[in-house]
Every structure is written in C-alpha cells, then in structure tokens.
Specification:
The complex is a heterodimer of chains A (about 130) and B (about 725).
Chain A (H helix, E strand, L loop, with lengths): L1 H23 L1 E4 L1 H7 L5 E8 L5 E3 L2 E7 L6 E6 L12 E8 L5 E3 L5 E2 L16
Parallel strand pairs in A: 1-2, 5-7
Antiparallel strand pairs in A: 2-4, 2-6, 3-4, 4-5, 6-7, 6-8
Chain B lengths: L1 H31 L9 H29 L6 H6 L6 H5 L6 H22 L8 H21 L24 H16 L1 H12 L6 H30 L11 H26 L3 H24 L14 H21 L16 H33 L3 E2 L2 H21 L10 H24 L6 H32 L3 H11 L1 H25 L2 E7 L4 E4 L2 E12 L10 E11 L2 E6 L2 E4 L19 E3 L1 E5 L2 E8 L5 H13 L5 H17 L4 E9 L2 H18 L4 H10 L10 H6 L1
Antiparallel strand pairs in B: 2-11, 3-4, 4-5, 5-6, 5-7, 7-8, 9-10, 10-11
Helix pairs in contact in B: 1-2, 1-6, 2-5, 2-6, 5-6, 5-7, 6-8, 7-9, 7-11, 8-9, 8-11, 9-10, 9-21, 10-11, 10-13, 11-12, 13-14, 14-16, 14-18, 15-16, 16-17, 16-18, 17-18, 18-21, 19-20
Classes of the chains: A alpha+beta (about 130), B alpha+beta (about 725).
C-alpha cells in the first residue's frame, strides 16, 4: 500500500518533470540554424561568438552580432539587461533570443552568459614543458 | 622544487596502490580467522598507516606548490597561468585552486586529511568494515592522484620562464573566493568518508547502526562545509558578479546543492535507523547517492560538460570521470540489491501520525527536490540523448517545482520536532501546535491587512516560517521552564543548560530556525525586489523602488584601486540615494580594469586590456539592501585618443610612463564624463539569507561538538548497546 502510494507519487512527479521540461526548454541553436529555422514567438538559446566591431550601445540596448564558431553566418541581436564582465568581441556567448522585427533577434532580459575566455581554459595535455 | 612535487605525486600513487592491496589482502585474512578479540590484522594496520603516509606526502606536495606561488616562481606552468607579481599576496596564496591541476591537488589533499582523521578516530572500532573503507578511500585518492600524474600535472615546468605571469582571474579576487573552494571541496571529500564506511558495512554485511554512529559527525561536517561553501558562493555571486542575484540555478551551484540535499535527508533518516532499526535500505542508498553526487559535482565543475559561468572550456578529464561515476553508481546499486536480505527493517511503522512518518515525508521532499534539480541540471544532456537537440530549462522551470517543495519542507521542519516517536495522540499534537498555528495565521492576516501585494508563494512562506519559528521557541521555552522549576535556574542559564545537555537536538532546532530565516529572506528578496537599468550623466537620477538615485560625480583611480584587487584603472561613480526627500546613503560602485599580457594592445592599452570586473556597492541593512553596479564607457573618442597617443609615445618596458598616460586618460574622463550604465536593485530582507545561513551553521556546530565526557560515559553505562551514546536525554526518557 505504502509502496503503491510512493511509486504513484514518484511517477507523477517524473512525468510532470518530463512534460514541462521538454515543452518549456529552449533549444540550443547556432546562428546559421537560427536564421533558417527560427519561428516567431518561440525562444531559442543562441550560442556563438561575438563578431569583432559589431558591439554598439544605444541607451539601454546593446547591439551585437553572433557568428558560428566557424565564422560563416552571423545574426544581429538587440539585448537589454545585465552584461557579464567577461563579455567581449570574439568571446563565446549564450543568449536566449526570440525573432524580432527587421531580422533582428531580441535578447531576453538578463539572459546573456559569457563563457570563460580561453586564458582560463586548461590546455590539452601536450608534450610542451616538463 | 618541481622535481620534489612530482616525486611526491608518484610516491602518493604508489602508496595508494599499495594501501588498496594491503587492505583487501588484510580483509581476506581477517575474514578467514574467526572474528573476536584477536588483534587487528597487521596488513590492515599497514594500510591504515598508508593513509596517514598519503596525507603527509600530499601535504609536502601542496606546500611545494604554495611556496612556488608565494615566491612568484613562474617556471611552474600553473603559477605562470594563474598568478603574477601584480596579484596581491593574499590572492596569490589562494591561487592554487584557480587552476584545474591545483584543484585536483587540493581535492586529493583534503581527502587524505579527512580519511586519516576518520581512521585515527575509529582505530579501535568497526573492525570488519574498515579494510574495505580504506580500500575505497585510497582508491578514490588513487584516481585523483593519477589524474594529476597523467593528465593535469600541477608541477609542470615551462621550458621558457616568463618574466611575468598572467595573473589571477580578477573575478576571483574577492575575499570569500579564497575560502569558498576549500569549503566546497572539504564538503565533497568529507562525504567520501560515510560513503566508504557505508559501502564497507554493506560488503561485510555488518549493517547495524554502528557505521552510522561512527561516521555521523563526518556526514554532519560534510553537510556543514557544503553549506558554508554554497553560502559563500551565493555571497560572491551577489557581491562580486555584476548581476545582483545570489542564485541562478547555474549547473555548478546545483552541483553543490544536490549532495547537500541528500545529505540533509540522510542526517534525518539515520535517526530512524539508530532508534528504530528502520529504513536501512534507504539510508544505505542515501549515503551512496550523496557520495556519488559529490563526485559528480566535482566532475561538473572540472569537465565543462554543461554551459555555466564556471564552464572552464573543453577539458580532457571527461572520460575518466564518467568511468568513475559509472563505477560508483553500478557498485552502489549492486551493493544495495545484493545485501537487501540484511537490510530488512526491524520494525514497522506504528502509526501515520508519528515522528518517523514526518521524517519520511521530509526525506521524500528533499529527495524530490534533488531529483528535480538533477533533471533540470542535466536536461541539456538528457534532451540531446532523447531528441538529438540540446535544450535547457531556465530558472522559471526550477522555481515552479522548488518553491512548493521548499514550502512543504519549512512546514515539516516545524512539525517534526514536536511529534513524538512511534505514535502521537491528537491531544499532545494540539498542545504543541495550537500556538504556532495561531502565530502563523496571524502573520498571514497581518500581512494581508497591511496590504502586502499579492504574491501567494511569498505570503505562504512567511506564514510557514512563522509557524516553524514559534514551534522551536515553544519547545525551548517549555524545556527551560521545566529546568527553572526543578533547579531554580534563571532563564538564560536554563536555556544554556538545555542546549548543553542535548546538543544534537537543540543544534538541530537551531538549524531549523536558520533555515526558516533564510527562506524568509529568499521569499522577500525575490518576490518584492525592484530593478532599474539606466544610462545616466552626472546630475541625472533614476528611480528604483521607493528610492531616487542621483549620479553625483564620476570617480577614477589609477593603480591603487579602493578594493585592493590590483586593478590598473578603476572608474566609478558617487551615487546619492534619497527616499522621501531625505538622503539615505551614498553608494560608490566602480568598474576595475586590469592589465593583459597582449603586447598587440600597445603599451598603454595593455594596461587596461584585460577583463574588466564590476565592483558593486551596496547599502546593506536588516530591512533590505540597495545594490548598485556601474558600467562606464571608456570607448569614447577622447579616451581612445589618449590611449592611442600613449601607445605611440611610450616604448615597451616603461611601465611608469604608461601609467602617466593612463592617468591623463582618466583625468580626461573625469573632466568630460560620458553617460554610464547603472544597474540598481532593491532587495528587501536579503540580509536574512546570510543571517539565517550563519544561524543554521552555528546550529550544525552545536550538534557536531562532542558532548561533555562525563555525560557520554554515563550514557554508555546506561545503554550497553543499541541506543546512541550521545542521544539527547529528553528523547531517551521518551523512547
């Protein structure tokens, strides 16, 4: 009896988790995919590199372009909210965006994350040194 | 010196391998001879000494690295990467754990210290389980030491010694960051001790409560250190990162929270096993899960498998860690399933209304919380496996589940202490719960009458916390009154005497008080905060909540930044905060600019070419904080012109002249300040989070502290076996 109650509760929680997470999650997407696949009204988690000389601030809004790591296509983003300290041109960022007007993607407020720059990355084990 | 460090690592690995072999061999010999009063097997004693030796060797290794950091020995690759002459000395001393290899060394060192402590304390106990526990602890140590030997060597020498290091990441130049990683790692490594002894008890089928009693303090200490680490991390996030939050459901935060939650569940459910011989399967699973989650936490931070502000990029440590975690999970499942015959419960639940069932409910809520967080944290990997596309869930998803679960948890933390063991009567429940219920309801009514805006979850949390606080207050008062009547003590003496005699119980109550205060702070500061982000020129103002914030004047310092973090340039603002026409406070947020090692940026440009870091400024009061951060604009024509001119004029190797040029640029900035971006936040009651955290941690200390020796001896005489030696006297009378 207790086992049945406990298992039912566990199954209910698990299915709620599954349902809500799969329906609410923002798919991670590259700039190229975003350009071709983005549907209006749906938000995406855009990952890419900030294009050099593309950062511009106009009042509260920060404009920048995000490109594929390979560097081919780039999409313009208009973002408001907190800008993390390590945000720079050429760095990899993650930002939640939605298709806006005029081909510009609107960044969700305070959703910008900057990956730590390569300086703090561990070097692959190579023959250098010791 | 690097040679010595390297030799230490190789020796450490050899000692680990020897110790594992000796422990397993000794265990087999011990099992072959009949158990009883025979002296401990010499092989097991030898493996125990191997653990002590490991602690000694790793202490030497970490000392070698520490000396290299303090002496600016840039021939060490890790010193050149994470330290520099301009890094202040206190931060140089803590730079070991800024790098992958240094963190691994710290992990192994702490593991060897805690293992040694446990093995020394239990040298005359737990004879059967000890050799397996030693083998597991040394096996884990061997894993981490081999990572350093084969993948991330902290003693790697550079063939060309640079004149200057790259410096410690400025984001880490913050006082709590010096102790946050050792605290977290202590929590993680302390969790390995109950894991090892729990597994040892399962292997040898000696699953009475003895291993739990022997390792309980370690489980509590692990819980305490993890808690301190989590709090310090939240504090760092709030006071150093420029976003104004203390918790973002970031994978690395979650990684530390998950073992803390299962550890909390464990600390409650072991009381049921100690007292009633129930829930053995559950406890064994919890202790193994806590240890595994602790290893997974380390893995998450060090592998870069998930995106987070802590993601340190691609790492090579993924595969070995996945293997270790698979081994831990597989081994845990095998042990629990194969030993289920001896893990059978000695009693059945007598009634639904008893402390046992309250504890079980608390356990279910805690484990559900952990499961929700686990699902959300690893969801990018799950969705990638299921749909082929990586997707992630954000804070709103987490909050949807964690808020109601946290509410239930706070109510249970009030209910648990007043429901008696085995069977509660309605009359007794009424006596204990009437007043707390009255307090909770009146809190709700008062808040509604005062017209607090409609945030049902926050209001519910305030009432739940009021309930829990008044339950604990009632319990303490009742106990103190009894002592006052019996011994004629005054109130404070009676309360002190009460706590001193029942440390574990009143320590636990204190933790409940702290958690209730913490949740009041979380609910208030998240539900009723105001945020304004605005660009301002000197003289202009912005509104945030009930305050008006005015940008009075810009500030600039070259080299001697006010926070002493080694910033070469520090630009900021003086902000005047007014409410109802009166000045409340002055805030001075700044942004620090740091030197980079990129020569291409020019002699002056490279002085500020590193990563800028926001130094926030806040006015912290018990009623609420006013928080401010600034993002100055140094990309004005005037500023860039001065820097470019400086780059042309100042030759390399003349740092003083470059600084003069920087001072000229800074003066220009002060004379014609461009608009700066401000982030202003008011957070009511946010200080209660830190206050509650400190209270909870004090409570844990009270519970861990060894009881008075005389009392323990007396208890042991009274209770030859079975019952815990340091059980609270009040509970004994009731049991």
């Amino acid at each position: 009896m207790r086992l049945v109650v406990a298992l039912t509760a566990a199954v209910l929680l698990a299915s709620a988790l599954m349902y809500t997470s799969f329906s609410a999650a923002d798919p991670a997407i590259s700039p190229t995919q975003l350009m071709h696949e983005a549907q209006p009204g749906r938000s995406y988690e855009l990952t890419g590199v900030v294009v050099a000389h593309s950062v511009r601030r106009d009042g509260e809004v920060l404009y920048f372009n995000v490109a594929d790591r390979a560097g081919a296509d780039s999409v313009p983003v208009a973002y408001t909210g907190t800008v993390p300290d390590p945000f720079r041109e050429g760095r990899e960022v993650i930002v939640t965006v939605e298709r806006g007007q005029g081909g510009v993607f609107r960044g969700e407020r305070n959703s910008l994350i900057t990956k730590c720059p390569s300086k703090y990355k561990t070097a692959p084990p190579s023959a250098s040194g010791s | 010196m690097a040679g010595l460090g390297r030799a230490c690592l190789l020796l450490a690995l050899a000692v680990c391998v020897y110790g594992v072999a000796a422990a397993l061999h000794g265990a087999r010999r011990q099992a072959a001879t009949t158990a009883g009063g025979i002296p401990a097997d010499s092989w097991i004693e030898s493996s125990r000494r191997a653990v002590y030796a490991l602690a000694l060797i790793l202490t030497v290794a970490i000392a070698v690295l520490e000396v290299a950091f303090l002496r600016n020995d840039f021939s060490f690759s890790t010193v050149a990467d994470t330290s520099s002459r301009t890094t202040p000395t206190i931060y140089r001393a803590a730079a070991i754990w800024a790098s992958q290899e240094g963190s691994l060394l710290l992990w192994s060192w702490l593991l060897s210290l805690w293992s040694s402590l446990m093995l020394f304390l239990s040298r005359r106990r737990l004879r059967a389980a000890t050799p397996y526990a030693i083998a597991i602890l040394l096996g884990l140590a061997a894993f981490f030491v081999s990572l350093m030997v084969f993948y991330a060597n902290p003693f790697k020498i550079l063939s060309r010694v640079p004149a200057e290091g790259q410096g410690l990441d400025p984001l880490l130049r913050f006082p709590t960051m010096m102790i946050h990683p050792p605290m977290l790692y202590s929590g993680y490594t302390l969790a390995m001790v109950p894991l090892a002894f729990g597994a040892g008890a399962l292997i040898t089928r000696s699953v009475d409560a003895e291993w739990i009693r022997a390792t309980r303090r370690f489980a509590m200490a692990s819980w305490l250190f993890l808690g301190v680490g989590i709090l310090l991390g939240a504090r760092w996030s709030f006071a150093e990162l420029g976003w104004g939050g203390y918790w973002g459901w970031d994978p690395v935060e979650n990684a530390a929270l998950m073992p803390w939650l299962t550890g909390t569940a464990f600390l409650h459910s072991i009381m049921i096993q100690e007292r009633r011989g129930m829930l053995k399967v559950w406890n064994a699973s919890l202790v193994l899960a806590t240890g595994t989650l602790a290893v997974m936490g380390t893995f998450l931070v060090r592998s870069g498998v998930l995106d987070s502000i802590h993601a340190f990029g691609a790492s090579t440590l993924g595969v070995p860690f996945v293997l270790l975690i698979a081994l831990l999970i597989g081994g845990s499942i095998y042990l629990v399933v194969s030993r289920r015959d001896v893990l059978r419960s000695e009693h059945r639940l007598d009634s639904l209304l008893c402390r046992e069932s309250a504890f079980m409910a608390n356990n279910l809520v805690l484990v559900s919380l952990c499961f929700v967080i686990f699902w959300g944290t690893y969801f990018p990997l799950i969705s990638k496996a299921v749909t082929g596309q990586q997707a992630s869930v954000g804070p709103p998803w987490f909050n949807r589940y964690t808020v109601p679960l946290a509410l239930i948890l706070v109510v249970l933390s009030g209910l648990g202490p007043v429901i008696p063991w085995r069977r509660a009567t309605l009359g007794a429940a009424r006596r204990h719960l009437v007043w707390p219920l009255v307090v909770a309801l009146s809190t709700l009514v008062v808040l509604l009458v005062l017209g607090t805006p409609g945030r049902p979850a926050a209001l519910a949390m305030f009432s739940a916390a009021a309930f829990t606080l008044s339950v604990v207050a009632g319990e303490v008062l009742r106990g103190a009154r009894a002592r006052m009547a019996m011994a004629g003590e005054t109130m404070p003496v009676a309360v002190l005497g009460l706590v001193r005699r029942n440390r574990r119980r009143y320590g636990g109550y204190t933790v409940h008080v702290g958690i209730a205060l913490l949740f009041i702070g979380v609910a208030a500061s998240s539900s009723f905060q105001h945020q304004t982000q605005r660009g301002l020129l000197p003289g202009q103002s912005a509104h945030v909540g009930k305050y008006t914030v005015r940008y009075l004047r810009p500030t600039a310092t070259v080299v001697n930044d006010p926070q002493n973090t080694g910033a070469t340039l520090d630009l900021g603002a003086v902000l005047e905060v007014r409410a109802k026409g009166r000045r409340v406070t002055l805030l001075r947020p700044t942004e620090g600019y740091y030197a980079s090692d990129e020569a291409a940026q020019g002699t002056v440009g490279s002085l500020i070419g590193g990563q800028p870091v926001s130094h926030i400024s806040m006015d912290a009061k018990l009623g609420g904080d006013i928080w401010s951060a600034i993002e100055p604009n140094i990309h004005t024509q005037e500023f860039e012109r001065v820097v470019a001119a400086g780059n042309r004029v100042v030759p390399p190797g003349r740092p003083d002249e470059a600084l003069v040029a920087l001072a000229v640029a800074a003066r220009g900035y002060l004379r014609h300040p461009p608009a700066a971006q401000f982030n202003l936040i008011t957070l009511p009651l946010v200080e209660w989070i830190w206050l509650g955290g400190i209270v909870a941690l004090l409570g844990a200390l009270i519970a861990i502290w060894p009881g008075p020796l005389g009392l323990r001896k007396r208890a042991r005489v009274l209770l030859p076996s079975g019952a815990p030696a340091d059980a609270p006297a009040g509970d004994l009378a009731r049991a």
